[in-house]
Design goal:
Four copies of one chain form a homotetramer.
Chain A: E1 10-11, E2 13-19, H1 25-35, E3 43-49, E4 54-60, H2 63-66, H3 69-76, E5 81-87, E6 102-106, E7 109-119, H4 122-131, H5 141-152, H6 157-167, E8 170-178, E9 181-186, E10 195-199, E11 202-206, H7 209-215, E12 218-222, E13 227-232, E14 235-240, E15 249-250, H8 251-257, E16 263-264, E17 267-268, H9 269-283, E18 290-293, H10 299-309, E19 317-319, H11 335-342, E20 343-345, H12 347-350, E21 354-359, H13 366-377, E22 382-387, E23 400-401, H14 409-412, H15 415-422, E24 426-429, H16 432-438, E25 444-445, H17 447-450, H18 459-468
Parallel strand pairs in A: 15-25, 18-21, 21-22, 22-24
Antiparallel strand pairs in A: 1-23, 2-5, 2-11, 3-4, 3-5, 6-7, 7-8, 8-9, 9-13, 10-11, 10-12, 13-14, 16-17, 19-20
Helix pairs in contact in A: 1-3, 1-7, 4-5, 5-6, 9-10, 9-16
Chain lengths: ~475, ~475, ~475, ~475
């Protein structure tokens, strides 16, 4: 799944839901998923409901590959509400069977559910259900949630949902179409984002506000941690499903994952990235000729660094906009070509300069080392690599694929070793405090940097972490 | 072919050629075409020669779609030299039959030819050949060139090429594989770029230097106007095919078409664009809060404007990186969504600000007007639209698709009318002199701005232009 | 789904299972499904088990379209046993989600199940399970069976299977991979076929013996009605799951559905069809010049008629072997072309002749009428249409799609009306007794002809039938 | 290209042309090509003309794969006449570039040409043209013909065609769309078939009469050897282009290639095959229990043999109707499966019997030997293989791919050796005289049996044949 130049954490999902009988709900969901495409590129799905029957279309690939005009028209004709999902998945479970939304027949009729996040007790819940005679057809957490809701259902879907939330541990933002309404749920820590929009008097839910902008909906507010939102013919209803815990929205959404034009929990992503650049300039001032970003991820922080430091910003690296997924990999002999196909150093900008290069994160370090080498080749006098976040030391259990712990460069090398590995003249990571300052007084999850998991860990994982603590 | 948001001129081709028996020539050509993909996205082709037999693979679509590993291996096994081509084409002639390189059997064996540019006397040449019993299987100029070479061939391919050049009018950069060598030709005005690279003692030719960087070749020099380059077992040979005319390299390559990391005729594209931004700031200083680019095309000029004016640069518009070609178009009712799917205004950056927005050109004006509207909607106090090139008033006959003359906004409206149409508070185009200053003392073709066609015009077109002169 | 010329009942499924650790089980299953392709062309699937983990690959289309060499190699590497399924489905539920085998995680690990047949109480069983908190992800009976097995499972899969069989009504031939073994089940009436083969000391199960022949397995015997077959490391085991009822194997398997080279319940299909032709000649002797079949379905019966009557057999109709599924339908104006694309009358054979044309069945009658017209056009003096089975009057509830009852020509017209509709000089259907004589003393289900449903009917259906009895 | 079971000669092309302004000419051509699909399955093309402009669509694969409804509608809207082509091609030149019709611009405008047959002097003609400055873009004979017509063209297309025919040697049936008319040409020996049909007052041309039947056209007559047919607004015109030679229509069209329902040069194909079976029974009477065909090719001859001999005809071998081109080949270990996937012996028919098996030809013998083995395995007491044509000893230079001479079993083994190789109890080939008797007094080309090439041979080939004469 990972390209040779892909050395970034991967978001695992994006969700959307809308109740709007007067609108083409499938088409709106399609455009919303388009805006959320950065959150998952491996599969996409839309489920449309007319209040009782639900029709779903799912497929592997990008939103634009999975849906055709014919499919959208077919779906549109079926409904007054819709939910949608885009998914990134780690190798192995990258199957169509695991694509979402998951649609089932249960006691009250049909239900469609889409999930962003990751449960830490999914295995335990699954085992209990199986012991009780249940069967599982997929390997996704979503199926566990759906089976629990179906079993807890007596007369009210909301009540069944609250009971289910009591069982779930970990991170989850859900959208559900069932029982003639759309529902949205955010876990009690609010790890994954979810917000509410309004479009011509009707309501919708989206992982990020950029999806609301795209379909022309007004941003209303973020869903609160532990809150259950219900959208139906009468409008928007709220119920606190579980008491809200100390909010712990994922810091990496701001650092890298979310789209720059989104605003999550009232903090704009572009602004937070710019501030990380500013903090970086304050923590690590360097005498240099130019500040360049690693495009596109280091762009905003580099502008912030340049602004704060007064050192000119320049475009020293150029990204090929046509790099696609079906690209033929260079052979072993041509491995240097691999990075140059995506990024090229502009010799005329770099030659003879002392360069500060800003990136948002380093996961395995291979790409960074090749870029530094590229800059030196075209004549950079010095290369200083500054990262706008702390070293990634711990696995994320809340829905982000950061690569396995053993492959994280920062768990295997200390700062000086990493500097040597990437070949930079100096290397600096923004401090935890720097990130927190940049994010204002927002209460965030920084487990991948500090190992403090607010919403719990899988049982097995906990033991393992304790063993190695201190050494890593 | 044109998407609703596609309001830019389109390059019509990119070419590459390499002689390197020790290398995987098809694979290198593939990567070079990848780097030249911005010059044409409708078809791609690679022809490989073992010195006598030539094998070709062509297809509709992106380089990554047309070639598979299997095809590359098959091609590689066949050769010691290769040429490649990417093509953009206007509607109607967008056929596989027109894809290049064109491969033919002629007196001396096989020949493959790839062409970037446009002949102004192709129709006349074609008519003469047909009268003489020739048949044409395609509608591309390339076939005219190939037939002329075959007819002029006596004992030397170079001589036949010189005779052919005497017949050709207009713009052409050619790469040819024939007679156990690779040849490159640039028309006497040097309208389209073509440069020479060196890779482990062997030579190659490319439309832009970024292709050389990508495959790890050293830039040697640009091919001179009217020069014929021959690359064979003995290295690089030069012959002045026709006397060089006053150079007239296309100004639009610098303004928009070429990749920012390329250097054409010794001027770096990023640097030239930055200088256009600087010139814009000098010609049109405005009191404002932020300078924002229309991504990606206005990026570098906006940085130049911000640098020269001291007004902060900001990312006020965000581009969706996943907008693909197979995208389902919004319906008439959702037309506003069309632009927002590609570009979204970041309200938190824009709200309450006086905004200078920089773009490189306006062709039809529809996209500009929607972006301005979008900025106002999220609270921009003022929007000033500054264009880093003069108004496009004339059709290009040298290989760029600028849309038909009647559809060019600047031929139909004066400056104030355009300002009202796009809805900006003010509108300014960089002057011809400003462009020339930014391009240093380079002698360029600016026919699309000033109507002076250095390499001639088609007969019919000339008459038409004279009729309307003064009014437009 | 139905082509204009498709006027035959459609089989709904074919199944196969094999336990053979020394063999490439996925590849053998692939070839077996190839041989069973006539039983279902809409989806295909293979599930492979290594004794604990099961991997499955399913897709829409023909076996040759669904599987690639890469997929087979991947599956092969996973297992020592496999089951496979081909499926025909009626419009509407023709979804990938409904493709089989169905693979689930249950208490004892993983289980894959493939089903041929149709339950008459599936809706009731489904309702009960849903009331008890279960959810359904598909609309196929198979999911009901799997959930029952999982719920009944205590310590033995066989016991759970027996309990499940007690709940099931209707027709079912199942193959199951679970618990380190392959199991096969046939309902107590033996409506759908299932037989046992032996290959190099290992055992397999198949819907028809032609699949055994194809992979080189020896035919062992048919599975008995109500019998549970288990195949594991120790060989073949049998247990009578439910007491066998009066056997009622489907007569239509012999008349049309099964492959001519298969032998089902000890009666060869080709032989049974030949005998139907013989019976037809005895029941309905006609003075004529030639006997021609409607290819391919009337072939064998026509040979039998010719043999018994002494009238020469001739090939008066020619079938186009390239008629595919993606064929572009003729427009309304060209509707006559539709049948001629598939069948063409050989004028030189037909002209001036009194023709006996033999077909195996008429469902809606449209195709028959066009063929008769075609024969007259090329000069047939008389056309006598003889059908080697009785009129189809009743819907099949046991897994065959005979078209809806209202569309069956024989429920709407009497014999003389049908004769006029198809335009034949005379029309004759083989009698029920004729079919029974041709099938020897085999006890068969002839519900579609006589309305006697040995394995029960769906509750709703029963009422409906009673209402209309006598009139139809 | 050849499947393991493909041991038959392959036809190389089928052509069709129609002039009918009132009709959907592209759609009619599509259906006609459908009926001619057996003559070529590797590429298909349709060119439509409005009298001046010609539009063409070509692709690799079956007619049903190459054309979509959208393409047909687009083509239909363009024209009042059309020509079409289906092509089989030998490996290597199986390229889209070689697909037909070939469409060119020449002096008089546009021309489309489709060709069935093979020139024996194509290489010489091509060399001469190239020496004169022409270039070739394909490797098909058709391009040679087109260039000659263009060069000879002065004021009349018919005259240019006659001059071209004077240059051509070998076999050719052509259809041409040019100059506001459709033309058809058959070489002076009439080696390949071509016939004329009438549809609602308009005329059309087809390789075989089955294409006329399919679109509902009346058969008018065969095109005469050397005749040029012109079809235009005024109807049908004939001109004898070259004096007709002693007719030499290809005997293999009757033996195997043509569709059974076609009538070529006034002899029906089914009838000729039946007579070959009758002749076989007279030349080689055998005491046996049953006569079985190798389906489908031996079917009609087997019926003839059974009729003449009085030995019962039986269906001992069953062909799988779903064997497709994308089938995954069995591995080396499973090679026996390869033939069984296509053909299965019906044990109940064969067991204990003395079997006469009829096939139309043996090319390499591998399939025959596997079928004989299969029959013995299911209990055949004796197997007698009778072939309804003489041994294939010579390469066809007139457009049929019979496999290379060295691979023809009959050039490498004598009768007894072949019998041993295929494992039959006896083997008999119908004599040359037997074939001639079956074909009545038709004058045919039997070069592949007797080495007498009526329309000449390629220069090189002639020498080679002389060398080996006598030994083979």
């Amino acid at each position: 799944m990972r390209e040779p130049w892909d050395d970034k954490p991967n978001e695992e999902c994006g969700v959307f839901g809308i109740y709007a009988p007067e609108q083409e709900v499938a088409r709106l969901t399609y455009y919303a998923l388009y805006a959320l495409q950065h959150r998952g590129q491996e599969s996409a799905g839309i489920a449309v409901s007319d209040g009782s029957t639900i029709q779903v279309h799912k497929g592997m690939g990008l939103v634009s590959e999975v849906f055709s005009e014919r499919v959208l028209l077919e779906l549109n004709s079926k409904g007054k509400m819709a939910i949608g999902h885009v998914r990134y998945s780690t190798t192995g479970s990258s199957l169509l069977a695991n694509a979402q939304p998951l649609v089932v027949h249960y006691q009250k009729g049909m239900m469609a559910l889409a999930h962003n996040g990751n449960l830490t007790n999914a295995a335990e819940l699954r085992d209990e259900l199986v012991k009780d005679g249940a069967v599982f057809q997929t390997t996704v957490d979503t199926e566990v949630i759906v089976l629990l809701i179906a079993r807890y259902y007596r007369s009210s879907l909301e009540d069944a949902l609250v009971k289910t939330m009591l069982d779930l541990q970990g991170a989850y933002s859900l959208v559900i179409a069932a029982d003639n309404k759309i529902m949205g749920v955010r876990d009690p820590y609010g790890v994954r984002p979810l917000c509410i929009g309004q479009l011509e008097g009707r309501y919708c839910l989206a992982s990020e506000s950029c999806a609301l902008d795209t379909i022309g909906a007004e941003f209303v507010r973020d869903v609160l941690p532990g809150e259950i939102i219900t959208i139906d013919e009468d409008g928007l209803h709220s119920r606190q499903g579980l008491p809200s815990q100390k909010t712990a929205v994922c810091a990496f959404e701001y650092i890298y994952l979310a789209r720059p034009d989104s605003t999550i929990d009232e903090l704009n992503v572009t602004e937070s990235r710019r501030r990380m650049g500013v903090e970086l300039a304050r923590e690590c001032p360097i005498e240099a000729d130019i500040v360049i970003p690693v495009p596109d991820s280091g762009m905003t922080a580099a502008l912030g660094y340049a602004e704060e430091s007064g050192i000119p910003f320049a475009q020293g690296l150029l990204k090929n906009r046509y790099v696609g997924r079906t690209f033929i990999q260079p052979t072993q002999e041509m491995r240097e070509v691999a990075v140059r196909l995506k990024l090229n150093a502009n010799a005329q900008v770099i030659r003879g300069k002392r360069v500060i290069m800003i990136d948002d994160s380093i996961v395995r370090g291979t790409t960074s080392s090749r870029i530094v080498e590229m800059l030196r080749k075209v004549g950079a006098k010095e290369v200083h690599l500054l990262i706008s976040s702390p070293p990634v030391l711990y696995t994320c259990y809340y829905g982000i694929d950061t690569a396995e712990r053993e492959k994280l460069i920062a768990t295997n090398m200390d700062l000086e070793e990493i500097r040597q590995y990437v070949g930079a003249d100096s290397l600096y990571y923004l401090s935890d405090e720097g990130v927190r300052r940049a994010l204002g007084n927002l209460s965030v999850c920084m487990a991948c940097f500090d190992g403090n998991y607010p919403a719990g860990m899988p049982t097995g994982a906990k033991a393992k972490l304790e063993t190695c603590k201190g050494k890593c």
